[in-house]
Specification:
With about 450 residues, this protein is an alpha+beta fold. The chain folds into three domains: about 130 residues, Schlafen, AAA domain (Methyltransferase, Cobalt-precorrin-4 Transmethylase, Domain 2); about 160 residues, 2-Layer Sandwich (Heat Shock Protein 90), CATH 3.30.565.60; about 80 residues, Arc Repressor Mutant, subunit A, CATH 1.10.10. The protein is about 30% helix and about 25% strand. The strands form eight sheets. It has a six-stranded mixed sheet, covered by helices on one side. A hairpin with a 2-residue loop joins strand 7 and strand 8. Helix 8 packs across helix 11, helix 12 crosses helix 13 and helix 13 packs across helix 14.
Length: about 450
């Protein structure tokens, strides 16, 4: 067996007091394995006083670390090259662990950074402690803010999913009240009207310093409805399709993968720290779409498990409801799907947030040339949606008409259906815009429908 120190493996020649720091560091990070009886270079030297060393490590686990680490640590041994090596298997713990005699301080709290054990700063300790407290607070136990909720949307979704609703046991079956019989935080999420804001914000450029060109609101209603509507808008409206014709063959290029985005968005809603009160959000830039949720990585889930698809919902009762409504599946294939398409780098784990950035297949501001069966047509891609203050309506922008004019100028005999194929829009959309162009005196059709042609005025 070859021993090499990594972020998940620590080697010690013999027992020292530093071992308790190493165990605490693994508990507070992503877990790992500690070997005693192995030199730093991987040479096996073995443990001479095996029983005494076993007892010392066991005492550290049971008496020197708070909170109790016994359920996260396994103590064993290996017989290698005629020598005994002690193996300490450590899982990531659910909490902030520290050395008892030093308390919850920088002398007692440690974290694994690469192959080293590093003391946590007071700021890191405070943040981690707050995360642990928030993670332990469940939306089913925290008292809600809405005291007379109604659930028409939720009951309708149940009926559509083939679930029968018993009015007498509805709140109990869906865990909408806490142990004291009060409406809880989950009832706030799922009732018909609430103050939970779920926004989709679109920027003109690649960062938030760019001008906001769209701001849509999908909150203040049953979460199951709001999250589905936000997804539908992004997947069906914002997810533009570039259509290219090459020697008569059509190729549609979607801005981003709809299935991957669904997994990211629904997971963000499901694993969000709703007790904190900050909802997830969607930000759309010229080169990517971002989803951000609060709470960070669950305390009982390592990054390795996360990317492997291990499913440990932060809000387990909410997960059960969404599964029953056929909105999510606890199969664990979502994260592996995203990483297969876009890689692990799209996930960014912050202290209190997780941000996922899905890159676009092309920049929505780019210009490009289509070499098609109807000739060479240059189309200028610009953001095709703009936000109008006051009525909050999203309308197709001027560039769609410019694209139509460009196509007709180069190919005046095209039908409306052919134009629609070239610019990647529906026939009804193109027909509506051409009517506007005709009404404004910018375009006119000369001759019969089949044999006529378009004139750009």
């Amino acid at each position: 067996m070859e021993f090499v120190e990594t972020e998940k493996v620590e080697l010690k020649r013999k027992y020292t007091e530093a071992i308790e720091k190493e165990i605490v560091a693994f508990l507070n990070t992503d877990g790992g394995t500690l070997y005693v009886g192995v030199e730093d270079d991987g040479t096996v030297v073995g443990v001479e006083k095996i029983d005494e060393t076993f007892k010392k490590i066991s005492d550290v686990i049971t008496d020197s670390i708070l909170p109790s680490a016994k359920e996260y640590v396994q103590l064993g041994s290996k017989y290698l090259d005629g020598k005994i090596v002690i193996e300490v298997l450590i899982e990531r713990g659910e909490g902030l662990f520290y050395i008892k005699r030093f308390g919850r301080s920088s002398q007692g709290c440690y974290r694994r950074i690469g192959t080293t054990c590093r003391a946590m700063s007071e700021n890191e300790i405070e943040k981690t402690h707050s995360m642990v407290l928030n993670a332990k607070a469940k939306i089913t136990s925290v008292r809600g803010d809405i005291q007379d909720p109604t659930f028409k949307f939720l009951k309708l979704l149940c009926s559509e999913s083939g679930l029968s609703v018993n009015e007498q046991t509805f709140a109990q079956n869906f865990h909408l009240k806490n142990e004291s019989g009060e409406w809880n935080k989950m009832s706030d999420l799922l009732c018909d009207k609430n103050d939970i804001s779920i926004k989709v914000v679109r920027f003109a450029g690649p960062d938030k310093s760019s001008k906001i060109i769209l701001r849509n609101e999908y909150g203040e209603k049953c979460l199951a409805v709001a999250m589905q509507r936000a997804f539908d808008y992004c997947a069906e409206v914002l997810n533009e399709t570039r259509t290219e014709f090459n020697r008569g063959l059509r190729k549609d290029i979607h801005l981003f993968d709809k299935d991957a985005f669904r997994e990211v968005w629904f997971n963000a809603c499901l694993h969000n720290n709703w007790v904190d009160g900050t909802p997830p959000a969607i930000y759309v830039f010229s080169n990517r779409i971002e989803v951000i949720s609060t709470g960070g990585l669950p305390s009982n889930l390592s990054r390795e498990d996360f990317f492997a698809g291990v499913s440990k919902p932060v809000n387990d009762e909410l997960a059960k409801i969404l599964i029953r409504l056929n909105m999510v599946e606890q199969t664990g294939h979502g994260i592996p799907l995203v990483t297969r398409l876009y890689g692990k780098s799209v996930f960014e784990f912050l202290d209190f947030f997780i941000r996922v950035s899905i890159p676009f297949e092309y920049d929505v501001n780019d210009s490009y040339v289509i070499n098609g069966e109807y000739g060479d047509v240059t189309l200028l891609r610009q953001p095709q949606f703009r936000y109008e203050t006051g009525n909050k309506e999203v309308k197709l922008g001027k560039k769609t008409r410019d694209n139509i004019i460009s196509v007709l100028r180069n190919n005046p005999s095209l039908s409306k259906e052919a134009v629609a194929k070239i610019i990647g829009k529906s026939s009804k959309t193109v027909e509506w815009h051409i009517k506007k162009l005709v009404d404004e005196g910018l375009v006119r059709h000369v001759g019969a429908n089949k044999n006529g042609h378009w004139e750009i005025l």
